[in-house]
Specification:
With 230 residues, the chain is an all-alpha fold. It has 11 helices and no strands. The longest helix has 30 residues.
Length: 230
């Protein structure tokens, strides 16, 4: 839910950046990271904060629409921001996304052990001295980076297609954390490239095909999980 709110915050950042003459990508990345830090510093756990996160989500989307109202020249590009345009990603933007991906992976590797510990048993982790607020903040920043990356491919409204779909399917197919992470990456890549190929063959939107493949992969993982546990 926090990731979903961050995607709407990213829409506000991108449209606000365009309004003042800055590249939308920088507004998207900067605003999502800033809000992720604010969420992380708000408390050691996000549990029980659904109402606050929901208000952030709705207010952020409303501000994004307000920015579009004042900058109508950007309205046509808003569709790409909301629903993605993987073919419109420039080489400069691609380089920025690659750097962000590396930074996100390095940060995730740095907090991997305390993050797993805090996720499985937060009370015991806190008793053992794990800084829950710091781990939460860093993890939300990583989520913000993931949101910014995914939004460039499938758009703000479909960001969960790549943020949740591959990981949810991988969780059903593997019980090991390392193997699950690797499998989720492979599934996301397969869905992205598969969406490009199918869009080329059918002339249908790339984002639709990526979303469809993500859904198919998840349903297939559910079927396999049920068979293996029958």
């Amino acid at each position: 839910f926090a990731g979903h709110a961050l995607s709407h915050v990213g829409f506000t950042g991108a449209t606000g950046a365009a309004l003042i003459g800055i590249a939308p990508l920088w507004g998207l990345v900067g605003f999502t990271i800033a809000m992720a830090v604010a969420m992380g510093l708000a408390g050691e756990r996000l549990a029980g904060r659904d109402v606050a996160v929901g208000m952030i989500l709705s207010v952020a989307l409303g501000l994004g629409l307000l920015f579009l109202h004042f900058y109508t020249a950007y309205a046509s590009a808003a569709t790409n921001l909301l629903f993605g345009n993987v073919l419109g990603v420039s080489l400069e933007a691609l380089a920025v996304l690659a750097i962000l991906a590396v930074l996100g992976l390095v940060a995730l590797g740095a907090i991997m052990r305390p993050l797993i510990f805090a996720s499985l048993d937060p009370e015991l982790a806190e008793a053992k001295g794990v800084p829950l607020r710091t781990v939460s903040t860093v993890f939300l920043v990583i989520v913000a980076i993931g949101v910014a990356e995914s939004a460039q491919i499938v758009g703000i409204l479909l960001v969960f297609t790549l943020m949740v779909g591959p990981a949810a399917a991988a969780q059903r197919l593997s019980t090991r954390i390392g193997a699950g992470i690797a499998l989720s990456i492979l599934l996301a890549l397969a869905e992205g490239w598969g969406g490009l190929v199918l869009a080329y063959r059918t002339d249908w939107p790339v984002s639709f095909w990526i979303t469809a493949l993500s859904g198919i992969a998840f349903v297939a993982s559910l079927s396999r999980w049920r068979i293996s546990h029958a």
